[in-house]
Amino acid sequence: MKKGLVKLIAGALAGMFLLSGCDALPKGSDGPREVPQTITADFTKKENKGNWVTYGDCKVTLKDGTAVVTERKSSNSGVAVPCPDYRGNKIKTTAQATTENDSLTLSMRYEIFGNVTYVNIAGGQPDASGAVSITGTVEIPANAENALIYLEANDVRDYTVSSFTVSIEGEFNNLTGVPVESLQDPTQTASLAAAYADYFKFGVASPATVMTNTNDGFRKLITTQFNSVTPENELKPDSVLDAATTLADPAKYNECPAIHFDAAKPILDFCKENGIQMRGHTLVWYSQTPSWLFYENYDVNGNLASRELMLKRMENYIDQVMNWCEENYPGVIYAWDVVNEAAADDGGMRDCYWKQTIGDDYVAKAFEFARKHGPAGVQLFYNDYNEYQTSKQDDILAFLKPIAEAGNLDGMGMQSHISSGLNVDNYVEAAKRYADELGVVIHITELDVTAPKSVNPMYDQGVYMKKFFTAIIEADKAGVPIECVTVWGLTDDMSWKSATKPLLFYGNLSPKPAYEGVMCAINGGEVAKPADYVEPVSDTTPFTEDYEDQSFIGGPRYSSVQKVVEGGHDSGFCLQNTEGYAEYDGYSIDVSQYAGHVIHVSFWIKSKADVCKCTADIDGTWPNIAEVQTGSDEWVFGEGDFEIEEGATLTIYFESSDMSPFFLDDLEIKAMN
Ligand code: XIL
Fold first, then answer.
1. Is 77 in the pocket of ligand 1 (CB under 6 A)?
2. 653: CA distance to ligand 1 center in Å?
3. How far is the CA of 346 from the centre of ligand 1 (A)?
4. Which residue, among 445, 440, 416, has the nearest Cα to 428 in the 3D structure?
5. What pLDDT sits at residue 213?
6. Has 627 been annotated as catalytic?
């Protein structure tokens, strides 16, 4: 073969690799191929052959069978294990590491028709010696390409990983060689934005990969359905801060970090060209903000910067970002989430670098700077999650009131990452309270609704969506100033919580019953029962679980892990609950078959935690069914009653008060009437 030709073929091959990533799936008809059930990173071997790759901007050095990750430029850079052949499966992933970072997280990245999606799987905090072990399970959508699991941290400090595995949970669904499903024409679906035009804007969060994608289906879905767009990640500090430039000359950029809009430009261009308005998300946040921003000389090995210096950096950052956007894309951004998630989950204000360096008034300062420098007419929002919970409402209102009184707040962003157990009246009450007490407008900024664990999850979710949107239309009519509702993602597969199927469109762009529910709320009518609808049975047979056959019917709530182990109450086996992000990550069971009855729940539980609870999983209230004093690490009996509404879907869950593992045995649930 001629040299020139060889070069040409090599070039074409390299081009293919660039386009599709090195682990592109076979899309042809070559059929499924043998796939190992477990992938274990071998840190004695180089990238790829050792089943691992370097992820993002960092340096990986192999030492004594471990991977030492240094020079991490962003919190998500590190080591990854590619698992492209595991799409369409539930996987379990485990990593063991040592680090000086406060926490490590196992996350997943995959592409859906070329659009990048990130999913957090599980996190862990290192012990006093810096050691941490993290385990989590997650489902990978069937259409996901180039899936990989990576280990990220809350900070840019080094970490050393000694083991990293990804394995199939349950029966393996081999989709290698199976073509990815084809997309539906989204322009055939009636427009949400048009249907809701009299009430509020209908927005969507999108990654900028949608704009650069060779596939125009996703762009058509946006232009057909939505009239407001929020960049999913591209306007967050870690995308906007120019690390290379700032860190190369810290003295020059000491008070005014360098910024760039490489990631955000495609989505800003798209909105400008299509006349779609944008919500800017987000200026000041504890997360997705590189830790070097908070240090003297931008050096994480030195001291934290002073309040004065951080106020200058904050002011300059806000000024530059808001004004660059307005100068280059006049009128495109109509609202900014100035501060995101400043309230703590357990009350008060979240501990974070902003609070540590500036103090509690960092929120007020951010709004002051945004008002001072922001273009006239751009609305300034505070944005948070679990914002409908009464206790969090109190905390948020406490620090927002003075800001609103100073005239620096225009809107409250209710993220609304909810599940279909959330009581819509409580939710609307929260919206009304924010609007009344702060005198601001409301945006629902990140709506996604975890599908219930019922026999007809998609249909039931659709029915809930109708109820939810009916309630917010009514509230709007009654004067609650809801001006925009944004859903957090285009399709279930592209959701940051894809396993919970929380959005309005399926992965192939066709509308879900959830979409239909939203449309029924405005147009009337009922969500159609699907062809495979299963009539829910009211089954009042008592339910028992003693784990002696080593099986259990429930599952993890969020990222906890259950395992049947020996040492049960009165010997035998019991269920162990470990891991998870928070105390409420526990063992969850669907009890919807008892709808319309009072249930009696009894169980034996053991834990080092002071208290263990059995709770009904209803967003916003989480009523207690039984509470037992554990602490002694001995088996303790618990019981309680709970009335389940007619027609409701309900899960209950067991949790420990401080994330200590707990053990459950001899669980019985029975209908009392
Ligand atoms: C999420 C994005 O959807 C993910 O792609 C990213 O990996 C993590 O952040 N609250 C917010 C959003 O304000 O910015 C978050 O977005 C979801 C929770």
1. no
2. 26
3. 20
4. 416
5. 95
6. no
pLDDT in tens, 180-204: 999 999 999 999 999 999 999 999 9
C-alpha–C-alpha distance, residues 306 and 7, integer Å = 56
The DSSP symbol for 346 reads: T
Q: Where in the chain is the domain with CATH 2.60.120.260?
A: 22-168, 543-671
| DSSP-assigned letter for residue 97 | E
Active-site residue identified among 139, 145, 341, 579: 341
What pLDDT, on a 0 to 100 scale, did the predictor assign at position 647?
Answer: 67
**Residues 151 and 43: beta-carbon distance below 8 Å:** no
Is 543-671 in CATH node 2.60.120.260? yes
pLDDT for the residue numbered 557: 84
232 Cβ below 6 A of ligand 1: yes
The three-point CA angle 27-28-34 to 5° equals 80
Hey, whose CA ends up nearest to atom 9 of ligand 1?
Answer: 233
Element at 12 (helix H, strand E): helix 3-20
| Fold of the domain built from segment(s) 22-168 | Jelly Rolls (2.60.120)
Neighbours of 393 (CB within 10 A): 20
- Please write the tens of the pLDDT for every residue from 434-457: 999 999 999 999 999 988 877 899
Q: Collect the ranges in the chain with pLDDT lower than 50.
A: 1-28
In this prediction, residue 16 carries a pLDDT of 36
Pick from 55, 108, 118 the residue to mutate for probing ligand 1's pocket: most ligand atoms within 8 Å of its CB: 118
> Half-sphere exposure (CA, 13 Å, Cβ side) for 355?
15
Residues of the chain with CATH 3.20.20.80: 186-240+262-298+332-523
For the CA of 285, the closest atom of ligand 1 is 13
Q: Report how far apart the first and last C-alpha atoms of the chain are (Å, whole number).
A: 84
Query: Is 171 in the active site?
Result: no
Q: What is the pLDDT of residue 588?
A: 92
Q: Domain 186-240+262-298+332-523: which CATH class?
A: alpha beta
Question: What pLDDT shows up at residue 460?
Answer: 92
- Residue-level pLDDT at 187: 96
